[in-house]
Amino acid sequence: MTIVHIVLFKFKTDVSDSHKEEFVTELRKLKDLSSVMSSKLVVGGPSITEPIERSQGFHYALLSYHKDSQALAEYQASAEHHRVTSKYLWPFKEDVIRFDFEISGDGDNHILPI
User: Domain with 29 in it: what CATH number?
Assistant: First the structure.
């Protein structure tokens, strides 16, 4: 089984672009956590969806893969994840959407080569 973890981030209107860029830089470092399967973590944004209204104001997205629900829980509980979210996200976020799902088997046939 493989867990796919997706998060969408929307920042308050007064958050600077430089802060958002720093957040993305720090978020990308989470790929080095052992709980992330084969360093499969990508962060993208800002949204290029046309028309932009379909993005519903969300600025960035994260996609990561974890070998099971325990690995995802370890990722969420890690000191590095806590540092990034508490310093760069929670005080500045307008909204966050998280969506996790399972892929049956080892997931190799479903994992994007990121």
Answer: 3.30.70.100
